[in-house]
Amino acid sequence: MSKRTSAPQEPANGGLSRQRRTYTIGELARMFEVTPRTIRFYEQEGLLAPERRGQARIYHEKDRVRLKLTLRGKRLGFSLAEIREVVEMYDAMPDGNARQLKRLLEILADKRANLERQLEDIRLMHRELDDVESRAREVLASLETESTGR
Amino acid sequence: MSKRTSAPQEPANGGLSRQRRTYTIGELARMFEVTPRTIRFYEQEGLLAPERRGQARIYHEKDRVRLKLTLRGKRLGFSLAEIREVVEMYDAMPDGNARQLKRLLEILADKRANLERQLEDIRLMHRELDDVESRAREVLASLETESTGR
DNA sequence: GCCGAGCTTTACGTTAACGTAAAGTGCTTG
DNA sequence: CAAGCACTTTACGTTAACGTAAAGCTCGGC
Questions:
Q1: CA to C1' distance (Å), from A49 to C29
Q2: Span A54-81, mean pLDDT?
Q3: CATH class of A1-77
Q4: How confident is the model at residue B146, as a pLDDT?
Q5: Which of A136, B100, B126, B149 has its Cα between 20 and 30 A from that of B18?
Q6: Which CATH architecture has domain B7-78?
Q7: pLDDT > 70: what percent of chain A?
Q8: Cβ partners under 8 Å of residue B44, min gap 6
Q9: Which residues of chain A neighbour B97 with C-beta distances below 8 Å?
Q10: Tens digit of pLDDT for each residue in B96-128?
C-alpha cells in the first residue's frame, strides 16, 4: 500500500511476446513487482500450479493471468483463501455439480456486494480527502500571507 | 470480509440521539459491529483518545466519527498506521508548520492515487465476475436441460 | 451486603502473508 | 572445469490486527 511508484501491472508488450508463452519465476516477479517468494507462496496456497520441468517451474500465459487476477483481488482486500475459493470453483466448473455452481453464484454475489460497499466507501473517502486537503491549503496559505505580509 | 449481513454502519438515528452525545465502549462496538477489544486496540494505536472518567472511557461524537472513518479506511485496505498518519496530522493542523502540511498533502495525493487504482480494479473485477457468473449459469442451465429433457 | 452486568488492565495466543537465511541443483560462460 | 547466476527446498522469523483468558473495579437493584 502507498507505493510511490505507479506499478505497470501490465507490461508494455513489445508486440511479439505471444511467441514466448513461458516465463520464469523471476520474470513474473519483476513484471508484477513482487518477490519470487510471494509467487511460490501463492502456489503453495493453491492459487498457481505451474508446469514442472524436473525441478524448475515453467509459467505459461494462463499462470500469468492467474497471478494478475490474484494480485488484483488482493488490492481489493480479498484474502488469498477467498481468491482461491473462486479460482478453484472456476477450474472445477466444466464438471461442477449444481450445488457447487450455486455456491459459486453465492460467492460471486457476496463479492459483488463487497465491491459495491467499497465503491461507496471510496466516494465518501474522496470527499473526506477533499475536505482535509482544502483545510490544509487554507492554513498553508494563511501561513504564507503572514510571513509575506509583514 | 464476506459478511453476509449488511452492516448498518450509520445507526438509524431515532431523531433524538443528539441529546446523549456520549457512548460506552459496548455501545460503539454494537453500532459498528466490532468488539470492544478492537476499539481499545485502536486507542492503543493512537487512533482514538476518549475522555476518561476515572477508569471508565467516555466516547463523544468526535470519537464515534473517528472510529467510523477508521473502519472505512480499513475496508479500503489502509493499514492502521496509515490511517493514524492522516488522523494525527489532521489534529495537528491548526498549528502545523508548512513542512508538515506539505507532507500531509503528499499523503493525501498518495491515498487518492490508491483510490483511483482501486476504482479501476473494481471495474475490471466486476467484468471478471460477470464472466464467471454467466459461464456458471450456462453450465447450470445445461445441467437442468439434461435432467429435464430425458 | 452481595450479585450480576459491564467495564477495566495485563498478558499471552493466533492467523495471514509473507521475509530471510541456509544449503543444494543446474546451466552457461570465460 | 570453475565460477557465477538463477533457480530450488526447508525451515524458522516477523508483523499487523486482533482474540482470549484471567483477575479485578463499580454501580444499580434486590
A1: 32
A2: 95
A3: mainly alpha
A4: 66
A5: A136
A6: Orthogonal Bundle (1.10)
A7: 83
A8: none
A9: 143
A10: 788 888 888 888 888 898 889 999 999 999 898
